[in-house]
Design a protein that fits this description.
37% helix; alpha/beta
């Protein structure tokens, strides 16, 4: 069976990825700072990983080749523009949303199976080409993630590993809120269909869940 590693799998989109891949028979390695009853109930392999700990992120390793890595974990605090005035909170967000995902992707690259795929869950709010203003810390963290993952795509190209950024849309999770447009199940199902179709022709791209490209 193929193996997938999913970060931030204790709730929301990450939990739904873990649930769907597990139900389809994949070997799932799920990471979270703290597990949850919902994640434990899936019976998948759960590993503790705190993205604020740079040493732990950089040294994280797996004992088997990965067919798929989904860098999903992140935070939206502080998301509002006033949060930009709090440098320490903004700094923490940059670590969780941009620096740690790249660090982990770099560390896992040697463990990827031939033809594997590395996916980072980004956001349309990280697009500089489609910027509505406000929410400065969150926007900048996702824009930084986009650049870091684009660089990782260049590093991984020689090994035939596709690295792609996906925007899940506005999803009904604790982060997205109840007023969001779609459920986590709908978003993840669409992203999984897209991930299955991705090839090296897509590496380095920034895509919506329907496969259309987002402006950088």
């Amino acid at each position: 069976m193929p193996t997938v590693l999913i970060t931030g799998a204790n709730r929301g989109i990450g939990l739904e990825f873990a649930r769907q891949y597990s139900e389809d028979g994949w070997d799932v390695i799920a990471t979270a700072r703290h597990s949850s009853a919902e994640l434990d109930a899936l019976g998948v392999q759960v590993e503790s990983l705190d993205l604020s700990d740079a040493d732990a992120v950089g040294s994280f390793a797996v004992g088997e080749p990965l067919d798929l890595f989904i860098s999903n974990a992140g935070t939206n605090h502080p998301m509002d523009s006033e949060g930009a005035q709090n440098a320490r909170d903004w700094q923490a967000m940059m670590m969780a949303n941009a620096i740690a995902p790249y660090q982990l992707g770099k560390a896992l690259l040697p463990h990827m199976a031939d033809g594997g795929k590395m996916i980072a869950i980004s956001s349309g709010m990280g697009s500089i080409g489609d910027n509505g203003g406000g929410w400065v810390p969150y926007r900048t963290s996702k824009a930084a993630l986009n650049m870091a993952w684009s660089c990782l795509a260049l590093e991984a190209r020689g090994r035939g590993i596709a690295c792609v950024l996906l925007s899940p849309g506005w999803v009904k999770t604790r982060m997205g809120g109840d007023g969001a447009e779609i459920t986590a199940q709908e978003s993840v199902s669409a992203m999984r269909d897209l991930i299955e179709r991705l090839s090296m022709d897509d590496t380095g791209k920034f895509l919506r869940r329907n496969g259309s490209e987002l402006p950088w």
